[in-house]
Design goal:
A hairpin with a 3-residue loop joins strand 1 (33-37) and strand 2 (41-48). The relative contact order is 0.21. This protein has helices spanning 2-25, 28-31, 60-80, 85-108, 130-145; strands at 33-37, 41-48, 111-117. Helix content is 59%, strand content 13%. It is an alpha+beta fold.
């Protein structure tokens, strides 16, 4: 469980530091957009009140409760069964990302999304953040690695 904690802690910290720098230091909330490596990587401010891509736009408190319930379930699951290192890292990624977005909902009323990527003539209308990447990577990691039992 120690590995899960540290993976989650550093994921959470990276997410929150990146959001603070982009939203407050670079003042993206006022500027709206900053071209970083056009057209591949841009900062485009988006306040997401739903889940990914603005889906399930409902009460922020319902989404906070749902995210916290999932976090508790993942923690209990990781504690009850023996899992390998990669599963613990994946769980930490999922937990850190989910808690990063929960804190955004509490502080701002919505999730601060700012990363926007495009390629090859395709203009992407959606923005995301490091927490979103971690949640997806963690979920896929748990799908692929949770069945591997701890060796020792």
């Amino acid at each position: 469980m120690r590995l899960t904690f540290w993976a989650g802690f550093w994921t959470f910290m990276l997410d929150q530091i990146s959001k603070y720098l982009v939203v407050h230091v670079l003042n993206l909330r006022e500027r709206g957009e900053i071209d970083v490596l056009p057209p591949f990587l841009n900062f485009r401010m988006a306040w997401n009140q739903g889940i990914n891509f603005g889906l399930l736009n409902t009460s922020r408190w319902i989404l906070i409760a749902l995210a916290l319930a999932i976090c508790v379930w993942v923690i209990v699951w990781m504690m009850r069964e023996k899992h390998g290192r990669l599963a613990h890292i994946a769980a930490g990624l999922l937990l850190g990302g989910a808690l990063g977005n929960v804190l955004d909902r509490i502080l701002y009323g919505a999730v601060a999304d700012f990363l926007n990527m495009a390629c090859c003539g395709f203009e992407n209308p959606f923005s995301f953040n490091i927490a979103d990447i971690a949640v997806f990577a963690g979920a896929f990691g748990l799908i692929f690695f949770a069945g591997e039992k701890k060796t020792r």
